[in-house]
């Protein structure tokens, strides 16, 4: 697995900085983009293949993505199609200069921009910033009962009062809130590197004590026996 985190000596990014997913099987290109985009003020999560990218996308919402077209296994065009089915994340495709037909196909599938290899990192950064400027400022909010969870800020409030959450509680709630009403498989939660198998139940019980009138008979954070968990939401605001 090639998911990355802040490296020593690099500036720590603000939580509200644009979060970019980079998918490329070339380790040299991934490392280059990670370092450069962080210096440009982005948060970066990077992986080497579409399979891992799909797992990550199951639990996180990104502001933009950079996908290489040619990768072993599932290619970038298939991953692009999957992403556009589930949301409107701006996607920049990386292509070899000779791959004209693939660039055309990518645009037909919903790619927002493309950049041929080799490329200048500064140009890629500028293209990403242009994509983000063109994107509406969507602050998705999930409401349930008196609670309001802002996915962009990762803040939970109850009747306007901030509810304090631990980092693991916040992460668990975010994973559920990205798919309100849908069952999130237990294996997806366990796969999150900050939430281990045994920790899931502990964190869920703690979160229920903060959200439920009767944690033993939860209304919002429900267990789907044998499958996983779901967040029952009253309303999802996309604006």
Features:
5-stranded parallel β-sheet, transcription cis-regulatory region binding, 239 residues, elongated, phosphoprotein, Arc Repressor Mutant, subunit A, 2 domains, 8 helices, alpha/beta, DNA-binding, Rossmann fold
Description:
With 239 residues, this protein is an alpha/beta fold. It folds into 2 domains: 19-134, Rossmann fold (3-Layer(aba) Sandwich), CATH 3.40.50.2300; 141-237, Winged helix-like DNA-binding domain superfamily/Winged helix DNA-binding domain (Arc Repressor Mutant, subunit A), CATH 1.10.10.10. The chain has 8 helices and 13 strands. The longest helix has 15 residues, at 197-211.
How much helicity do the residues have?
A: 25-40%
Judged by helices, strands and strand pairing, the structural class is alpha/beta
Mean pLDDT rating: 83
Number of helices, counting only DSSP H or I runs of 4 residues or more: 8
> Could you please say which CATH topology of the largest domain applies here?
Rossmann fold
Q: Tell the overall outline.
A: elongated
N-C termini distance: 34 Å
Major beta-sheet overview? 5 strands, parallel
Strand content: 15-25%
Order of helices and strands: EHEHEHEHEHEEEEHEHHEEE
């Amino acid at each position: 697995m090639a998911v990355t985190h802040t490296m020593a000596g690099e500036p720590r990014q603000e939580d509200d900085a644009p979060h970019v997913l980079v998918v490329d099987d070339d380790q040299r290109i991934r490392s280059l983009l990670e370092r450069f985009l962080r210096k440009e003020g982005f948060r970066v999560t990077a992986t080497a293949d579409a399979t891992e990218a799909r797992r990550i996308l199951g639990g996180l919402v990104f502001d933009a993505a950079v996908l290489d077209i040619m990768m072993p296994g599932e290619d970038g065009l298939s991953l692009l199609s999957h992403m556009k089915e589930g949301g409107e994340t701006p996607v920049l495709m990386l292509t070899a200069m000779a791959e004209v037909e693939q660039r055309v196909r990518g645009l037909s599938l919903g790619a927002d921009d493309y950049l041929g290899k080799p490329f200048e990192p500064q140009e890629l950064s500028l293209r990403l910033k242009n994509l983000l400027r063109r994107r509406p400022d969507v602050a998705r909010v999930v409401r349930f009962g008196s609670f309001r969870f802002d996915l962009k800020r990762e803040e939970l409030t109850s009747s306007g009062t901030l509810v304090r959450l631990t980092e693991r509680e916040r992460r668990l709630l975010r994973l559920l809130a990205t798919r309100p009403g849908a069952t999130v498989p237990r294996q997806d939660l366990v796969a999150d590197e900050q939430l281990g198998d045994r920790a899931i139940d502990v964190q869920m019980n703690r979160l229920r004590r903060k959200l439920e009138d009767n944690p033993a008979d939860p209304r919002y954070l429900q267990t789907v026996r044998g499958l996983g968990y779901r967040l029952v939401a009253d309303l999802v605001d996309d604006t």
